[in-house]
Amino acid sequence: MTDQPPAAYSGPQRILSGMQASGSLHLGNYLGALKRFVPLQDEAETFFFVADMHAITVWQDPAVLAAQTREIAAAYLAAGLDPKKAAIYPQSAAPEHAELAWIFNCVARLGWLDRMTQFKEKSGKHKERSSVGLYTYPVLQAADILLYKATHVPVGADQKQHLELTRDIAAKFNNDFGVPGFFPMTEPVITGPATKIMSLRDGAAKMSKSDPSDASRINLLDDADTIAGKIRKARTDPAPLPDTLEGLENRPEAGNLIAIYAALADQTKEAVLAEYAGQGFGVFKPRLADLAVEKLAPITGEMRRLMADPAEIDRALSAGAERARAVAAPVIAEVKKIVGFVSL
Asked: Whole-prediction pTM value?
């Protein structure tokens, strides 16, 4: 990849992130993303999109895709994002994403994409049957970010490689076209005690929408009884909880439940262990279930209310798309001029 030193970027601070419109949202999405988004809207200009274009890299039922787009928008709003502060919009509502992605397809190099581990994981043994879109997914992701000249992106640890690619594309574009500092060197924002929530059935696997076992995750639309039941049945071990983090080594399921409790309670894992050290899961799990219900019930209720009124969701998305395009349109116009496209 390019080894050109990045030039200083002097534009405004902007924060951007998105969630893919495929599958139902779960606790991992809330703790790893939604909960972290809310305070950011008061720190800088913020853009939170629903990644419907990324979703179709694998086939989606059109009606389901539309419903899931609205569900994610409802989750954004229910979690506390204010459409008067943050632009909330479907990715496809700003066609500039696709325009910039094509230009970046001509800047990025095959060798860079060949090293993307997520494509290898998602395509498995059938690479030749995967869509071209799945292969170039990280380039569209770079366009999502740089279209708004986002300076910071809250990402999970598994997305750091894609953000590094974004920085490489930005640096190569700036260098190739002699426009130092045009695109920023976007920085990741990874904070908190639970950036990666694991499956309730397997502490070595990430909590996922695609896991065939619904018991592996707590969905944001689960009711209180369902949440309590899933936590009660979550895999653990027979040993009591330790008093130090070192005592959680080689106990992934126990460590996961402690991390979930810490994130929900806004505590450190050390503080949680100090409170429950020496106690078994027969005591800890009911407390965790009560905490999860307390924190998630208001979000679940508001999501259900919003999803019963899709027109309200669409109004928020329309307003967000208008704000997003007001920023995106001048950027893509300048990019076209830099590249040499004739303006008519």
From this structure: 0.89
Give yes or no: 125 in active site: no
d(CA 212, CA 302) in angstroms, rounded, equals 27
Instruction: Identify the active-site residue in 196, 206, 295, 336.
Output: 206
Per-residue pLDDT tens for 15-52?
999 999 887 899 999 998 899 899 999 999 999 999 99
Torsion from C-alpha of 9, 15, 19, 25, nearest 10 degrees: 150
- Is 209 an active-site residue? yes
Candidates 199, 196, 223; CA nearest to 209 is 199
Q: What does the alpha-carbon distance between residue 270 and residue 241 come to, in Å, rounded to a whole number?
A: 12
Q: How does DSSP classify residue 16?
A: E
Contact (CB, 8 A) for 23 and 217: no
Catalytic residue among 196, 209, 295, 336: 209
Q: Catalytic residue, from 122, 196, 295, 336: name it.
A: 122
Catalytic residue flag (residue 85) = no
